[in-house]
């Protein structure tokens, strides 16, 4: 392979960071004497951390007939209805959600997946037919990774767990994609020998057949109905979903609150339906940086939550980056990763369940789609095709690739296809095409995996109501002009929050129009700006040079130093984007270092 020297590189400074081990499954010719085997069958082995028998009951179940073994992580919102389908009284059921799925599978097989509502990553072993199936939930809240070489296929919910079973070879196309997007989209991972199961699909062994049991599709309905009608439908569903996502009525709950429309809407609904204390959590970056505390505090006061504000210093941001990268599967170059972890740890002092507003932009037409819409109108003037414009819209390193990548790397990836092409050039409405890509890739491969990994690292249960599979499906039924039209963004979500009706109350009762202050509903989208530009200019200059320009850096065989040196010197930074690019590279280098140490 190219770049074999990478395998022998040693990290200079970053100490080993231990993370909590997860379950893993081996399929194939496995040594039966392998340590920590908690359950085994011919060609199928379940390995748990320390062989923990307590962990076994949480992560493994066998169907009542003994034919199907189900291993994995699952959280269902419709467990009561599923038990009733099996003729079981919900109050009498003492088993786990995995046991429920095992029995559903024994009754209906693959078709039972269409009945599951929730988040899950499952491995199903058919003892009779000796067939293995890997299953992931529709939206991609949970993850499953598997190795692609050797006589044994190893499967785990976290990429780091598979470190002993892969080589150190990087997937160069995944590296290219990360530099453009700040995450690795699609089934690839940064490791050449490991792949990620896509949302809404089943992978079957030994045939390696992939079957989609759900697909995100445009299904626009009721185009003659006004915005209010669609807003009422959305509000009815949000009322239901938020209540299902809440913990038991006597337990406190938390919400990550930025002060934007999405997180504020979830906060307002949580406060409406939950009678135990509601805690909200916001961040800022000190007196040098602008913040949104005015808006988050306004929402907290309006909804009468117990509000907590965390200041994140530049020292915190840099020092906590290695630990944060150790908790992620693939690297994520979003500067919010470190704040997400630190805020999660603050939240854990008060709650065990935390909700967020992630999903509002992908599902309901956030303003980041506007550059692409403009390009579709003026592409003949800009001479940018849709794919080029889409990559540039991430505002990362897409235009820098020919200079940033070493010549041999650029030659290897230059003509490789992109995972976005099928959706980008589909026949769906143009805005819906953009939203579908944001849901399928940015949602599953950046937002949701970040939420899942970092809340779990903080010992929290993270939940994203706006990314619920039913909300996503409904978003594809709403006429595009009610999502993003001109400068008006997320009109249908604003309508749902201000004047929706709830089917959970008397239909004649209109929900209060002041569930949120007008200042929140009608404020322009600004986004949470993490001050990485200031960080690299003033606080992290020397550390970044030591990390990125060191001849022993893990990125050195792949990237040219000259562009990185220019970015560190801020030469020609017309659009103030160098800080974002440098954070992207720092996250990558640190991720590579902390993950090499698990071998």
TrEMBL record:
Outline the extent of the Asparagine synthetase domain.
Answer: 234-593
Q: Where is the Glutamine amidotransferase type-2 domain?
A: 63-162
SUPFAM superfamilies the record matches: Adenine nucleotide alpha hydrolases-like (SSF52402), N-terminal nucleophile aminohydrolases (Ntn hydrolases) (SSF56235)
**Chemical reaction(s) catalysed:** L-aspartate + L-glutamine + ATP + H2O = L-asparagine + L-glutamate + AMP + diphosphate + H(+)
Q: Which family does it belong to?
A: Belongs to the asparagine synthetase family.
| Enzyme superclass (EC) | ligase
Has UniProt tagged this entry with the keyword Nucleotide-binding?
A: yes
- Which InterPro entries has this protein been placed in? Asn_synth_AEB, Asn_synthase, ASN_synthetase/amidase, GATase_2_dom, Ntn_hydrolases_N, Rossmann-like_a/b/a_fold
Query: Its pathway?
Result: Amino-acid biosynthesis; L-asparagine biosynthesis; L-asparagine from L-aspartate (L-Gln route): step 1/1
Keywords (A to Z) from UniProt: Amino-acid biosynthesis, Asparagine biosynthesis, ATP-binding, Nucleotide-binding
- UniProt superkingdom: Bacteria
Cross-referenced CDD domains: Asn_synthase_B_C
Key word Magnesium present in the record? no
Q: What Enzyme Commission number(s) appear in the record?
A: 6.3.5.4
> Which protein is depicted?
asparagine synthase (glutamine-hydrolyzing)
Q: Which organism is it from?
A: Nostoc flagelliforme FACHB-838
């Amino acid at each position: 392979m190219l770049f074999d020297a990478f395998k022998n590189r040693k990290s200079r400074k970053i100490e080993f960071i231990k993370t909590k081990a997860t379950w893993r499954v081996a399929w194939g010719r496995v040594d039966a004497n392998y340590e920590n085997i908690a359950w085994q069958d011919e060609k199928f082995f379940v390995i748990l951390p320390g062989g923990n028998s307590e962990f076994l009951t949480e992560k493994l179940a066998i169907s009542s007939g003994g034919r199907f073994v189900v291993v994995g992580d699952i959280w269902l919102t419709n467990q009561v209805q599923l038990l009733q389908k099996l003729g079981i009284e919900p109050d009498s059921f003492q088993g786990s959600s995995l046991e429920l799925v095992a029995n559903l599978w024994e009754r209906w097989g693959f078709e039972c997946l269409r009945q599951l509502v929730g988040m899950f990553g499952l491995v199903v072993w058919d003892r009779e037919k000796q067939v293995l199936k890997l299953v992931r939930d529709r939206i991609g809240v949970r993850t499953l990774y598997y190795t692609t070489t050797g006589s044994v296929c190893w499967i785990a919910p976290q990429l780091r767990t598979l470190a002993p079973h892969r080589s150190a070879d990087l997937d160069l196309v995944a590296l290219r994609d990360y530099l453009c997007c700040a995450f690795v989209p699609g089934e690839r991972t940064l490791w050449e020998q490991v792949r990620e199961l896509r949302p809404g699909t089943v992978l079957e062994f030994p045939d390696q057949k992939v079957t989609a049991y759900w697909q995100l599709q445009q299904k626009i309905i009721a185009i003659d109905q006004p915005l209010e009608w669609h807003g009422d439908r959305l509000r009815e569903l949000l009322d239901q979903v938020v209540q299902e996502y809440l913990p038991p009525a006597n337990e406190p709950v938390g919400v990550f609150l930025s002060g934007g429309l999405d997180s504020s809407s979830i906060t307002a609904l949580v406060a409406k339906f939950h009678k135990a204390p509601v805690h909200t959590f916001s961040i800022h970056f000190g007196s040098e940086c602008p913040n949104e505390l005015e808006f988050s505090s306004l929402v907290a006061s309006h909804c009468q939550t117990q509000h907590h504000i965390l200041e994140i210093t530049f020292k915190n941001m840099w020092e906590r980056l290695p630990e944060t990268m150790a908790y992620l599967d693939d690297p994520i170059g979003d500067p919010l990763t470190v704040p997400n972890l630190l805020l999660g740890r603050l939240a854990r002092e008060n709650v065990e369940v935390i909700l967020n507003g992630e999903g509002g932009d992908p599902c309901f037409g956030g303003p980041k789609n506007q550059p692409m819409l403009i390009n579709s109108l003026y592409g003949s003037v800009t001479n940018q095709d849709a794919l080029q414009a889409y990559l540039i819209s991430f505002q990362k390193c897409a235009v820098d690739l020919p200079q940033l990548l070493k010549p041999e790397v650029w030659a290897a990836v230059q003509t490789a296809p992109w995972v976005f092409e099928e959706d980008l050039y589909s026949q769906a409405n143009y805005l819906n095409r953009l939203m579908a890509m944001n849901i399928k890739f940015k949602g599953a491969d950046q937002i949701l995996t970040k939420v899942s990994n970092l809340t779990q690292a903080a010992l929290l249960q993270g939940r994203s109501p706006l990314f619920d599979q039913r909300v996503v499906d409904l978003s594809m039924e709403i006429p595009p002009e009610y999502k993003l039209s001109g400068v008006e963004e997320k009109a249908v979500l604003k309508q749902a929050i201000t004047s929706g009706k709830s089917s959970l109350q008397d239909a004649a009762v209109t929900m209060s129009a002041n569930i949120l202050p007008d200042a929140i509903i009608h404020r322009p989208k600004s986004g949470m700006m993490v001050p990485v530009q200031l960080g690299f200019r003033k606080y992290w200059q020397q550390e970044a040079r030591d990390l990125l320009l060191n001849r022993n850096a893990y990125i050195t065989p792949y990237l040219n130093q000259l562009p990185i040196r220019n970015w560190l010197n801020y030469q020609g930074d017309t659009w103030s984007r160098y800080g974002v690019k440098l954070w992207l590279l720092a996250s990558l280098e640190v991720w590579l270092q902390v993950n090499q140490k698990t071998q």
